[in-house]
User: Which sequence fits this backbone?
């Protein structure tokens, strides 16, 4: 099996460093100097392997979206046929399933959306895709529920999850995840009466 190219390895090394800097300093604070220092590379190697700050941000967004989609697809694929909603909720509201750096990068990208229409469009699509994944699992579990109710509950569960996940950087938030999980389950239980 051929070894990956050095450029591919460097790109991953640079993007790993950029993610760490974005998580620590935000997008505006993640300077090329800080990224180079975090990556252990000379600054010109960043431009050589990825490009300018705009190209770096584009690569970060693309990687974030691809990894998020892959993780969600893996989660959905692994759901059991019986009671998939309960298993999904267990996974979503388990702080061990979340990663503080990923949460901080997501928050930074959402914040950047205010000033960047392209990122805003991508992050809206990411959010809608997440909601659709929840919606589809709910539909599978509650096939007789009204479509509008399923959509409302999917949005509600997503909001509860995003809120709980946004607090992960605070540390020691297991009680918040547990209460959030109970809130999501309570909201989902309303679908039982809407059939």
Assistant:
């Amino acid at each position: 099996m051929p070894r990956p190219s050095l450029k591919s390895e460097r790109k991953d090394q640079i993007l790993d460093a950029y993610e760490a800097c974005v998580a620590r300093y935000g997008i505006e604070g993640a300077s090329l100097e800080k990224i180079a220092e975090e990556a252990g590379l000379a600054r010109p190697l960043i431009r050589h392997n990825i490009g300018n700050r705009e190209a770096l941000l584009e690569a970060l967004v693309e990687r974030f979206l691809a990894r998020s989609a892959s993780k969600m697809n893996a989660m959905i694929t692994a759901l059991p046929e019986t009671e998939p909603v309960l298993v999904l909720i267990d996974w979503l509201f388990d702080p061990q399933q979340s990663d503080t750096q990923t949460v901080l990068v997501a928050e930074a990208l959402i914040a950047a959306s205010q000033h960047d229409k392209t990122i805003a469009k991508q992050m809206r699509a990411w959010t809608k895709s997440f909601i659709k994944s929840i919606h589809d699992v709910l539909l599978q579990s509650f096939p007789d529920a009204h479509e509008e109710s399923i959509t409302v509950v999917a949005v509600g569960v997503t909001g509860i999850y995003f809120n709980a996940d946004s607090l992960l950087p605070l540390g020691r938030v297991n009680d918040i995840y547990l209460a959030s999980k109970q809130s999501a389950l309570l909201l989902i239980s309303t679908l039982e009466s809407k059939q």
Remarks:
- The chain has a mean pLDDT of 94.
- The two ends are 54 Å apart (CA to CA).
